[in-house]
Predict the 3D structure of the following.
Amino acid sequence: MPENLNYFDILGVKLDYNVNNDEVHEKYTQLQKMLHPDRFGNRMEREQRISESLSSLLNKAYSTLTNPLKRGLYMLQLKGISIPEETTSINPEFLMEIMERNEEIESALNDKEKVVRLMQENKIILHKLSKKVADSFRNNNLEQAKEVLVKMKYYANIENKLKTLKQDLGIVD
């Protein structure tokens, strides 16, 4: 595999934040059918290793491109920009908002309806942030994309907490 290929190239989709998930899935499925290690069980060990490596790379590309946060972070990475784990330049008002969200989650530990409502609200927020990231990339405003992706990271963490709580409470969609 040539070293200069990115995940968009590997899956044969346009390098754009607004990917078509159906197209990504279709191309991923086609490539996995050709490269999956099960197809190389009777081949030489070298071919098996190559198949495993390429299949693993396809899985990572698919996982990255179908997740709005991972996709945005990856697109920044392609431009040589990374977001450190400990981001210190965050707006204090935003941090208060996140703290309040976390407190709401804590108060919903046994309230199924509240958990469902919080999940719906969080999904709407993530969708709006994703649109802002798309606009930022479209306008080549990488600094703004970075700022919005930092916020998305916080809301993605909230989403994970809510999913765990939802599972713990036995909530089924």
In short: DSSP finds seven helices and no strands in the chain. The longest helix spans residues 112-138. The mean pLDDT is 90.
